[in-house]
Amino acid sequence: MMTLKNYFSRFSALSITLCLASSSCQSPSSTEEVATVDFKTPNFRLVPTDTFHFNNFVDCNMAEAWVGDTLRIFPGKYGEDPVWGYATDLKFASGANADEIFSTPSEKYIAPRMPKNAPVGQPGLHGAVWFETVYQDSRDTSGRTLYAIYHNENYPETLPFNPQTEEGYIDQNWPLGLTERITPAAVPRIGVMKSIDGGWNWENKGLFLEDKQPRMILKPHNISKTFAGGVGDPSAVAVDDYLYLFYGEYGYPGEYNPETYSTETEASGQCISVARIKISDLEDPQGKAKRWDGKGFNADWDGIGSPISSLQISKENGGGPASSPQGGFHWGPSVSWNTYLECWVMLMGHVEGQSWVGDKIYISFNPHRDLGEGANSQAWTAPKLLVQKPGHVIWYPSLQPLNTPEDIAAKNTSLKLGKKARLFFKYSDLGKYMSEYIVEFEK
């Protein structure tokens, strides 16, 4: 949700070799401490299909939930944005199955009632939001109580620095953003909204995670034309009493100082990270979440965590910091529990150049349902290439349910899937969100 949208401690890592039908097994990095895991990593194959176009604006993960016997999806963007303009694209569609809502024409989408942006300098919602995941409160048997986990972007103009709260940004040495004209870079945060009527009306509940001003990466070092720092592009899954948030970390892992800045230090704290919050705290989330710090969920909601090391790209393999014009990191996770494989599946994008250029989508697996035990939340296999589209820029991958009796009966969504799932992603250079493949898994 980047504006992009619009155009440590070393832990004992579980090392799991990924063997695909199209590639050989690879050995784990020699820098990792290896623990034995009884997990046969799944094979998968892409099955080409007729192109299935999603008929509305998509610039984020696909947030969806079954409300009774109705599948509802919430793509788009809402709110103030001085660079790209005020947005009213966050709308929803409903249908009896996945194919029906994915085929809904844009004019049939409905705009929910959203909280208004607060005036600059006053408490409340600032900047634009994108819904990334919808958590459905299991205590409400009607399915109408929803919590939307949203990506939120601000600038020094919409969220100026407040020395009393230390929230906001200082417009000094601020990096440039994604547009081709002179505009500022955005800063993403992650927040929570709630609906008690199935998504027709939403109330802002507060922030889940944020990085503050000291961690922003400024001129002269930040020349990526994307973010000044921050956290965003999340995907959240519920396990027992917790909601686990996988997200992109774009800030400096410490206080940014141009005199002591290090590209290696920046890159060491970036890529895909994880935090968690008690589901009971979603009603009043701010300050309640904890980030993984390399040993456990110990870092504060606005503190410095540690990314998932198995998902990072080494410098030797083209890895680099988010502020670099060359890029070199994974971002935009989309996580689902696969009931056929009985493991977690994560899709992610791959930044290769300035302005988040990248033509590849990767996949990773985690065999541990309980993400809170030990280092289970870190036990992701090394990412393997899922699809590549040379000459294009592809973002926001997701696996989606099919229009089958099994998927409908199970009320599958992008958070819970089976043996087969439809692969969607956005051709950012074409402005189109579509599916050209079904992914079929094998144990």
From TrEMBL:
<keyword id="KW-0732">Signal</keyword>
<protein>
    <recommendedName>
        <fullName>DUF4185 domain-containing protein</fullName>
    </recommendedName>
</protein>
<feature type="signal peptide">
    <location>
        <begin position="1"/>
        <end position="21"/>
    </location>
</feature>
